[in-house]
């Protein structure tokens, strides 16, 4: 048992070190992501169940959640679960297969677990949507994302505007399925692309 605990602790520490490295060297637009999530958190109220995606924008906003009392964070991300638990939030980490690169769960077990949870607000990211009519994700997370959409009262997609220029992968939802889109200041062309979304919010740094 001691050996198992030691192994888990070592793996978690290694995961956190990788996360800090990524944040330091790759998340150059961290302040923009924080402002996006600051706006997003205004939709979250005391007592809500919130699904928080694994992307860097969602992770940047975790400190803003600390001031909202009695919320439950549901996530498939080891990074997100660890950071939220560290801030004494109630966390449900969805099980299933674990991606060796992104440290997030996926698969049938993860999708079926979501079906037992009523989500008040789902905060989701996207891989990119250049010349596309919806938001995208990794191939192995498509099914999980679809289940999250079905279980959620409100769908919020958050992303920095760079994703407007990123080629799409697997579309998990059409723009018309989303309630709120929150990003940086957008051009007229970018707003036109997503104009079917009922509420579009531009977060300024």
* DSSP strand count: 11
What are the secondary-structure elements, in order, as H or E?
HHEHHEHEEEHEEHEEEHE
Average pLDDT figure: 88
Lateral strand order in the biggest sheet? 3-2-1-6-8-10-11
**Estimated share of beta-strand residues:** 15-25%
Provide the helix percentage: 25-40%
Q: Helical region count? A: 8
Q: What does the largest sheet look like?
A: 7 strands, parallel
State the shape: globular
Q: Helix- and strand-based class? A: alpha/beta
What is the subunit arrangement here?
A: single chain
Give the low-confidence spans.
Answer: none
- State the end-to-end distance: 48 Å
Instruction: Give Rg in angstroms.
Output: 16 Å
Question: Topology, please?
Answer:
Elements: H1 2-25, H2 30-40, E1 49-52, H3 56-60, H4 62-65, E2 72-75, H5 78-86, E3 90-93, E4 97-98, E5 105-106, H6 108-114, E6 119-124, E7 134-137, H7 142-151, E8 152-158, E9 170-174, E10 180-183, H8 188-193, E11 199-202
Parallel strand pairs: 1-2, 1-6, 2-3, 6-8, 8-10, 10-11
Antiparallel strand pairs: 4-5, 7-9
Helix pairs in contact: 6-7
